[in-house]
Amino acid sequence: xxxxxxxxxxxxxxxxxxxxxxxxxxxxxxxxxxxxxxxxxxxxxxxxxxxxxxxxxxxxxxxxxxxxxxxxxxxxxxxxxxxxxxxxxxxxxxxxxxxxxxxxxxxxxxxxxxxxxxxxxxxxxxxxxxxxxxxxxxxxxxxxxxxxxxxxxxxxxxxxxxxxxxxxxxxxxxxxxxxxxxxxxxxxxxxxxxxxxxxxxxxxxxxxxxxxxxxxxxxxxxxxxxxxxxxxxxxxxxxxxxxxxxxxxxxxxxxxxxxxxxxxxxxxxxxxxx
Length: 274
Description:
This protein has 13 helices and 2 strands; from the N terminus they run H-H-H-H-H-E-E-H-H-H-H-H-H-H-H. The protein is mostly helical. The radius of gyration is 18 Å and the shape is globular.
């Protein structure tokens, strides 16, 4: 078991690395030996405020490192994507933090588990903790984990796993078309749905995947971003309808996603989801 004191000491000694989302040069799936320090470092890079809870969850240090580092790698790849396609405006927005609104407060049940480096301004949402950035990074991590058989429930064979194999470069059109980061997020969701549909993944499975990744309940409870969560869900539904190639997906996604985030913050319904 890792104590709060040990995690806090680690955070305090590595303040500059908190939330930096650096790429690890070690291949995510070929690497089989990592330490608990590696897992904790990846959590620091991800600006995770509940590292103690994660490392004491019963999962191995390798599984935790791959989860954290998968998100960090995706965050950096997307940042580079914006620069490579000539969208420095999106890159600037993607990599900057923002001040939390007064209404965006950590859920009281979650707050006791939070740990930050000493002196960290908790009113600031670091870039990879902002809802859109978290959702998109987690989305690419999840797809990669499914493709490598590390997340069950979506694929029953290696052939089915391969259907979920994508790269960030496959989403260049989303970066070129996006008006802002929220719009980019919705375009990524729809692009993924179109790719999976073309690979004969059924609508309900696609809806479940999008709901898992773009109706983030954990980040809503951690940072109180319920309004932002509802906005992203609505944008995705809008883009699904407008694309014209996914006739049954909008209603299926609405049913699964809205139910998840409707009461995630203090049990209060968000009227925008009604």
